[in-house]
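Notes from hallway chat w/ T.B., transcribed later so I don't forget. T.B. wanted the structure written out for a chain they're using in a teaching module, and asked if we could keep both sequence and structure tokens in one place. Agreed to drop them here.
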Amino acid sequence: MSNPIFKENYFKLILYMVVVVLINVAGITLFFRADLTQSKMFSLSPASNEAVATLSEPLTIKVFFSRNLPAPHNNTERYLRDLLEEYAAGAGDRFNYTFYDVSSEDEADSAVAEENKKMAKDYGVSPVQIRQLESDEFKSKLAYMGLVIIHGDLIEKLPAITSTNGLEYQLTTAIQKLNNKVSALMRLDEKVKITLYLSSSLNTIAPFINLNQLPQAPALVDQMIEKINIKSLGQVEYRLVDVKDKAQIEQLSKTHDLMALNWPDIPDKQVKAGQGTAGLVMEYQDKSQSLPLISVLEIPIIGTTYQMADMDALEEVILGTMEKMIGINKNIGYLADHGTHSLMPDRMAMMQGRQGGGLQVFNQLISKRYDIKQVNLTDESVPQGLNCLVIARPTEPFSDYELLQIDQALMNGTNIAFFIDAFNEIMPQQGGAFGMPPRYEPIDTGLEKLLNHYGIKVSNAYALDKSCYVHNKPQSQGGGEQDIFFMPRLKETSINNTPAYMKNIKGLIAMQISPVELIKENLEKHDVTADRLLSTSEEAWLMKDNIHLNPMFIQPPESADDLRAYDLAYMIHGTFTSYFKGKPLPQKESGETDTQDPAAGEPDGDAENNNEAEASKAPETLSEVSSENTFKEQSSPAKIFVLPCANMLQDNLLDPEGRSTNSTFILNVIDHMNNQDSIAAMRSKQQTLNPLADTTSAHRSFIKAFNIAGLPFLVILFGFGVWFRRSAKQKKIKMMFLS
């Protein structure tokens, strides 16, 4: 007779196996993932889902990765696979990706691997050098870790993916750029014109100036343009012009800044005197850009040398210039006069041993997503249609008419980001006393009265903080640590993480930053909201009047009553009232012009007489004609960002990859000013800085003791509790049977 208990267990086993199989079958079709990370690091951002969901053409990603990569690069490949799977799930049938094994020769020498290497090279993906630990020593090896994104006939590439940090941001922005490029190319009302101006007379002199390939240049450029036309959906119109006339050469040199070459008779080379020009000119609507075909290098001792442009590099430059011309990226304004920081370094200053002062890294980071249009208020007004205008550390006064241009730009809905300084640092003149410190003069440009009217005031002081950057002094200076109080270290408690573009910004470094205050009675005049973004710690104080920034001579106040927190940055948004409402509108001063004729030359010394003469020639205007709606008293919804620390845009506080919290903060603010909050949120979700909260020594000792002794003690108590519970249960059972 069979055992019924055995049959019951056997039946349960079969039933459990069936359930497990059914769950796995259901899991294949009902797949889901749960991302339990706080910042949703392993889930696609809304911007990424939108980018792939709105694809206008099929998109393919080809990934070239070597096999058996050492840590942490193997994790990068695994993360990339998961990320692409997420994109595919959100995009449907218009998104495809393929991984190609491009193993090193010492690992695999198959025909497939070699074919994949050739494909990677054709797409411009080259191997990168990585280090791995092998046999207790570090060795270098070449590995492929790149991908290309193909959308129609357009291609974007990420040639070196060495980290997971920011990878989703790179992929999504590249996909958006391609999608926008396809849409922009499809709606062009005219083609982009590219003209190669090349004098055939240059062929006679080319062999003697190291330009042997110059006669083949027309054919090489023609092949390059064919490739560009494929990538740009046939929207390029190309022509070759042989410039022979001297007057035409001079005109091209003047209008398009093309290189002009002149040479005398060279009897021993049988070369007659002549002239010629060479260069490419790109034109679209009212925009034009010249690109050199020949570069000139001045090499010490050797002298002047000439080189032909590299066609592959020239192709990339043409494609990049074309993107700017047709407006794939949004325009962003940058004030380029009134003593503001230059986007490029001052070469002359660097040659003289002074700081170049350029914002190269800022320019590089912003240019990846926006086209920067430099605005000169001296010659023109703020262009219409700009989402944002950046004003970085002006030092020269603005006229009332120029302030009117800024005010009216805000009234028209242009958001304005002010990165301003309270003081101008003036270095001592050469030949002065040795060791003379710099002089700090308050900056008064006139922008202050605009900002005060809008409801915010920048104090003429520097905010110093006990929570600051700590410098490790070299041994030559005695070693040890030196607090740099004028470089506040802003921690999570000092940063407002409520706005989406500020999430995960948990630590920043500022330098020579000034406090800001809200003028509440002025804010109440506008329909605006002020969001504090940054502040110092509770242990900050101000340095005003006598400014000196030698760390050796700066000490915190002795009394704690002199320490408190100061606000450092605000975002004000809403509807503003013009500063000039109810006031006589300022007129353009003599000498100010909206446009400047490049052919007009310099004005002569008798400017007033000339103006009077021109006025006498001007036709009379009808008194019946009047103008209306030329001045706006109330703004469209707009934003004002104020950060009294232009140093945060300097190269030493930003990184070229845009991964540091300082870079992320600046980029997120610019994105917010351009209504791109989804991109800002995606960029900052992978910020890895997560500093520990400050605690007292006693608190740290308690936590340490609890981890060492407290946790084992709790485990012992829990064990005793289980033992007592089991003992009580046994006694209860015994009592039941004994009774």
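Follow-up for T.B.: The CA atoms of residues 47 and 203 lie 53 Å apart. Might be a good example for the class.
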